[in-house]
Design brief:
The chain has about 110 residues and is mainly α. The chain has 4 helices and 2 strands. It is elongated, with a radius of gyration of 16 Å.
Length: about 110
């Protein structure tokens, strides 16, 4: 079985789920089919980077028929400011944010 690559947002959500589950990391990882070594590494990365866990926000589209004049500004925790004119697919925003995240980590 091929290993599934998870995004940093997915790892963040998993870490939050574990913290709220009342389960140990080991038990949570077994129940979710996760490698505990990877779990600890991601948790350590978030803590090392000083990531405020409240800074992660799920983006969802509301109203696919937004007018052309619609303007949206998104500022990331790293200080990047993204401005969009008109409607843009949430998947595209996620791709851009992911690229900026990798750039900030030097990947």
């Amino acid at each position: 079985m091929a290993k599934r690559r998870r995004s940093s947002e997915e790892w963040h959500q998993l870490i939050q789920q574990q913290e709220g589950s009342g389960q140990s990391v080991s038990a949570f990882c077994v129940s979710q089919g996760l490698c505990s070594t990877a779990f600890y590494a991601w948790r350590r990365r978030f803590r090392k980077d000083g990531v405020d866990r409240t800074s992660f926000v799920r983006l969802e589209a509301s109203g696919h028929g937004a007018s052309v004049g619609t303007r949206m500004t998104l500022t990331t925790p790293d200080g990047y400011r993204l401005e969009f004119n008109g409607w843009i697919a949430p998947q595209r925003i996620a791709e851009v944010v992911s690229l900026l995240d990798r750039r900030a980590r030097g990947c």
